Amino acid sequence: MKTIWTIILVFVLIISGMLITMIWGAKLNYQSQAESDIAAPADEVYRQFAVLENWTQWSPFVGQTASDVSLVADETGPLLQWTDPRGGAAQLRLLGADATAGTVDYEFISPIFPPMRGTLTATPTTPTTSKVQWTATGTLPNTLFYRMMSGNYDQRHSIELHQSLERLHAGYATEAPASIE
Description:
Layout: H1 2-25, E1 28-38, H2 42-50, H3 55-58, E2 70-74, E3 77-83, E4 89-98, E5 103-110, E6 113-126, E7 129-140, H4 144-149, H5 153-174
Antiparallel strand pairs: 1-7, 2-3, 3-4, 4-5, 5-6, 6-7
């Protein structure tokens, strides 16, 4: 009888170990989205996110946490760089822009967070208004902290993106934001 319980215990431990390995090995992919109507023509709004320096006015990455933002050029092109108050140098780089489609692709690199890629699109709704759609994707680190928060990370990050679009919208509600070109 003792041998049967030993076999059952070993079997349960092996199955449990396999399940834990599968769970901890799974990727924690996320996709966050936000959308806002802006009281400005789509080409004007597009220029706000197609010019890297403008991100300091409204983005959740640069504007809210950095005081030492600088425009730096490296072998792949310009990027914004700043010291994240939580530690280390953070960077924002535009990967591509298509004025015809009103689309900008970017990458955000942080010392405390894995790289995030996203797309902003300004679509005309009328000659004087536009709809902005923002999608960001990435993979969270596979640690206990991120596993515990990953359940609602998409939602929290979507709220942060939406708040940034509201800051962009507010700039047009009071006066047109200055464009650095």
